[in-house]
Specification:
- By secondary structure, this protein is an alpha/beta fold.
- The chain is built from 14 helices and ten strands.
- The strands form two sheets. It has a five-stranded mixed β-sheet, with helices on both faces. A five-stranded mixed β-sheet has the order 7-6-8-5-9.
- Helix 2 packs across helix 14.
Length: about 325
């Protein structure tokens, strides 16, 4: 059969154009353009996480750092040893920090300057109030609680408690004028739920309040240099040094639920942060946190190693 050359040429051009159009259509389809390595879902960038001056926030901030670096394209700088919640808060407000570790009671009575009354003993109520106020006032987001309540607590040596029949903080009242009580500088200076407010609440007065570095006060009470100390309830040194926590029988301390908090501006830039860190929500109870703290404070392991071991044991990274 004889085919006209002009018609053959036109047919060929038409088929080529049709093929190109088909390829273009496939390229626009959802299934055909999944981003390699999730780059569009997990944009690259760098952020800074802050933590206070003791092991618990170091460990938790390092866990967050590991998760974000292993599950996305973020470079994370972890800066620790911030002295007090006010310094952390101001660093967040100035944009020097993107995330940090905090506790509801710390911000409720500290930054928000709320009076601690009987109606504010409920953990969920305090969390929701702090979350809403931080979002409205400071454009800062509180992620869900990590699962543990690390409240301040009065501790004494186990043998001292047994000798004097001490079970509650109120049991100290009569002998307090003859005792020394150690506290870290932050708690000594806090208003609302600090040292002097605690004494007023319990109608009690120690013979001497001794401010010292937080890392020293447990050994001070264990050695008998002071008779009592204001501890953290999840600190691993309480059990390791044979100390006992006295019951807060007058309900002075508000709940202190640990949480990660972040600037909303940072979350808008890197929305993957919430998804990546969500494995942390409600994954730590008091016993778990105390055990992790003890690895650093008692066993003297590096907090970065402790954090990575925990993340791997939980199966959160390969």
């Amino acid at each position: 059969m004889v085919v006209n050359n002009k018609k053959l040429f036109a047919l060929t051009i038409a088929l080529v154009m049709l093929s190109l159009a088909a390829l273009s259509f496939v390229g626009c389809g959802g299934e055909a353009e999944a981003p390699a390595n999730g780059d569009e879902e997990f944009p690259a960038g760098s952020i800074t996480i802050g933590s206070g001056a003791f092991s618990e926030p170091w460990i938790l901030a390092e866990i967050a750092k590991i998760l974000l670096e292993e599950n996305g394209n973020l470079e994370v700088d972890h800066i620790n040893n911030f002295q007090g919640s006010n310094v952390l808060h101001q660093s967040m407000m100035s944009g020097d920090l993107d995330l940090y570790i905090s506790w509801t009671g710390t911000q409720f009575a500290g930054i928000l300057e709320m009076e601690i009354t009987e109606e504010w003993r409920d953990r969920e109520k305090v969390y929701n109030y702090v979350k809403d106020e931080f979002d409205e006032r400071y454009d800062i987001h509180w992620f869900p609680p990590l699962g543990f309540d690390n409240t301040y607590a009065v501790c004494v040596r186990q043998d001292f408690a047994e000798e004097h029949g001490l079970e509650t903080v109120s049991d100290l009242r009569e002998m307090a004028p003859d005792l020394k009580c150690a506290t870290d500088v932050t708690f000594m200076d806090r208003e609302g739920d600090g040292y002097y407010d605690m004494l007023e609440h319990y109608d009690m007065e120690f013979g001497e309040g001794v401010p010292m570095d937080y890392g020293l006060l447990y050994r001070a009470v264990a050695a008998g240099d002071v008779e009592a100390a204001i501890a953290y309830s999840t600190d691993g040194r309480v059990g390791a040094l044979d100390l006992v926590i006295l019951e807060d029988d007058r309900n002075f301390f508000p709940p202190y639920d640990g949480a990660v908090i972040a600037r909303n501006e940072t979350l808008a830039d890197y929305p993957q942060i919430e998804e990546v860190l969500s494995v942390m929500w409600d994954s730590f109870d008091e016993a778990t946190m105390a055990a992790l703290n003890a690895e650093v404070d008692v066993d003297e392991r590096d907090y970065q190693v402790v954090a990575r071991d925990f993340v791997e044991e939980m199966g959160w990274i390969d």
